[in-house]
Structures are given as structure tokens and as C-alpha cells.
Amino acid sequence: MRDSLSSVFSYLFMTAVFISVISAFGIILILIRSFIVEISEIEKQTGFIFLYIFLACIILAPIFLFISNKLEKYGKRVDEV
Questions:
Q1: CA-CA-CA-CA dihedral for 34, 46, 20, 4, to nearest 10
Q2: Exposure of 77 by Cβ count < 10 A (0-12 exposed, 13-18 middle, 19+ buried)?
Q3: Residue 79 has pLDDT above 80, yes or no
Q4: Which long-range contacts (CB under 8 A, 24 or more apart) does 19-27 make?
Q5: pLDDT of amino acid 22
Q6: What is the spatial distance between Cα 28 and Cα 51, in angstroms, rounded to a whole number?
Q7: Element spanning 56, H or E
Q8: Distance of CA 39 to the CA centre of its chain
Q9: d(C-alpha 10, C-alpha 13), whole Å
Q10: Sign (positive/negative) of CA torsion 71, 1, 10, 53?
Q11: For the whole model, what pTM was predicted?
């Protein structure tokens, strides 16, 4: 059970990192586009949404990694006994 739970948090970590990379790419594209041409209000809102998603993933990814490592270490300790 702990092993599967550890795997779930590991997959959540990988998903959060992947989503943060995608949102960072979107933020960079919108930022570069704003320097070259005038952007609309919808593009500004989309950029802020990407920023919020990026910040949430940056906060959640280390938490998921920490929980995954703790569960993995706890599972190994129980198996050794």
C-alpha cells in the first residue's frame, strides 16, 4: 500500500514538473510577444493564468517529491524489520 502511494506522489511530482514546464513556455511566449506586438486583454489574462499555474506547480512539486521520498523510506524501513 505504501509503495503504491509513494508511486502516486512520484507521478504527481512528475506531472507538476511537466505542467510547470509547459506553463513557463507559455509565459515566455506571451512575454516575448508583448515586446514585439500589442497583445489583447485575453492574452494578458492567459499569461496570468499560466503564471498562477506555474507558481502552484512550483510550490506543489517539491511537496509531492518530499512525501514520495518519506513514504518510500518508511516502506523500506518497515520491510527491513
A1: -170
A2: exposed
A3: no
A4: 19/53, 19/57, 20/53, 20/54, 20/57, 20/58, 20/61, 23/50, 23/51, 23/53, 23/54, 23/57, 24/50, 24/54, 26/50, 27/51, 27/54
A5: 97
A6: 10
A7: helix 41-80
A8: 27
A9: 5
A10: negative
A11: 0.81
Q: What is the dihedral angle through the alpha carbons of 29, 35, 39, 41, rounded to the nearest 10 degrees?
A: 90
Helix 2-36 and helix 41-80, axial crossing angle in degrees, nearest 10: 160
As a whole number of angstroms, the distance between CA 75 and CA 81 comes to 10
Query: Which three cell numbers, joined as nine digits, stand for 26?
Result: 507559455
- The string of pLDDT tens digits covering residues 12-70 is 999 999 999 999 999 999 999 999 999 999 999 999 999 999 999 999 999 999 999 99
